[in-house]
Amino acid sequence: MDDVISILESAPVQPDRVSQITVVQVMNRAPMAHLSIERALKFLLRKHGIDLEDRTHKHHDLRKHLETLRHCDTDTAAYLEHAFNAATSFYNLNANRPELKHLQSLGSYFSEVGTARAFETMRYWEIDQSPDDLIGQIWLPLHLEILRALRGVYLYEDEKRRHTVVDRVERAVREAMWSDADLAYVPGSAKEVNVSEYIAWLRTHATFRRALGEAIRSGFSIGNQFMNKTVAQAYEILRQSKDPAVLYLTTRLDVLPPQPRDFIPEVEWLGPVKERSGMVKTPSGHNLGFIDRSADGLWHITPSRDGPVSVAARAKSQTDARCYLAQLLTGPATLTAAGIGKTARLVGEGREKIQLNYEWERAGRASEIRTISWSHKLEFWDTDHEIQVGQAIRVEVKDDDGDNVVYVLEGDVTDVDAHVVCVVGHDYLDLAMPGERVDDGQADDD
């Protein structure tokens, strides 16, 4: 069991937008976890004198092994059920939802994913085969918690020492936030005051997990500098944990605050399940990224941008997820066209709001390519920018190189097509005028 637990922890499934890649990962791990659970259950049955050569136990049906255990060891079976229920609650899996009804109990879970047929399907599945509905029923974190519970049965005869995922994660958070070395002090020193204030703050919370959650929501500004630094370091330690449950806690606590609703992108839903996975778009149809609702109700946000493609943030609501992408990948620009100044929203990140737009033409041989024209392209969020062909235009956007640095485009408008405006001119970096504030679209805190 330790070996399988180690494997599952060191190589967790990394969901991929190419669904076959995700399925491959699950199907490679699930049979291994299933077989380890089966061995553990059979060992317990053998301890109680159950004949494993009996036809009932000569196959891989975890449900039947569990039912037999209920008859010969009620307490152990009850503990396994308790550990399973604690895990579904910890991972915020609502068993009342139609697609999660099989998570109502350990027995119902085994009835779906722990049968001999399910084991054979996982074991011999090939990439050109459909896993039917099985793949949507398997929750490897639950397999892992079942294995951990069985491990507790083996290690501790005293039922009080058999813990659940909630106990284990709380202990991990406590160890990170309450380091004896960090809290040591010389009596009468300034650190004694800091530590006393920190301990007093911790004691105002029912659990260390709640204390950590409050610290994250406050931006690690909970008191004196020592307190802020101690909790921030604890959070970083937890984020490096190998325990998937601890990592899940850190992502669950670190969710986006409510996002501005000034610009709400559209969403095109993908796949057969309504409002599960979608592509977020600007009014012109520009792809800003993807949002995916996990079983715990959080929305995972993957922006469409250069560089590594990964989940950038998580939100509690679909609207917050969509608005986050609008805030991240679009932004305000200051325009002067036909002598009239205004502010408009452009699609892009940083200076990418002003894009080079090349048109190519082959000349002579296939290997000979030359540029016939080039311009700068501006993609507006709305179509009411009132810019017209032939106007002289100046565009300023905030640059990432500094608070007072602006990226400037000056030139003449050559084409206008709804949201898209093309400009022939020149671009450069400039400094905002002294005392001039560069608008980044965000309100200042008082």
| CA distance, first residue to last residue | 55 Å
Low-pLDDT ranges: 435-446
Summarize the helix and strand pattern as letters.
HHHHHHHHHHHHHEEEEEHEEEEEEE
Please state the average pLDDT score: 88
Helix-and-strand structural type: alpha+beta
Set down the secondary structure blueprint.
Layout: H1 2-10, H2 19-47, H3 62-72, H4 74-90, H5 106-113, H6 116-124, H7 140-155, H8 165-177, H9 180-183, H10 190-202, H11 208-217, H12 225-239, H13 244-253, E1 266-270, E2 277-281, E3 287-293, E4 299-303, E5 313-315, H14 318-329, E6 330-337, E7 340-347, E8 355-362, E9 369-379, E10 392-398, E11 405-417, E12 420-431
Antiparallel strand pairs: 1-2, 2-3, 3-4, 4-5, 6-7, 6-10, 8-9, 9-12, 10-11, 11-12
Give an account of the 3D structure:
- The chain has 446 residues and is an alpha+beta fold.
- The protein contains 14 helices and 12 strands.
- β11 and β12 (420-431) form a beta hairpin.
- α2 packs parallel to α3.
- The chain is flat and about 90 Å long.
- The protein starts with a helix and ends in a 15-residue tail after the last strand.
- 27% of the residues are buried.
Write a concise keyword list for the protein shown above.
seven-stranded antiparallel beta sheet, five-stranded antiparallel beta sheet, alpha+beta, flat, 446 residues, 14 helices, disordered C terminus
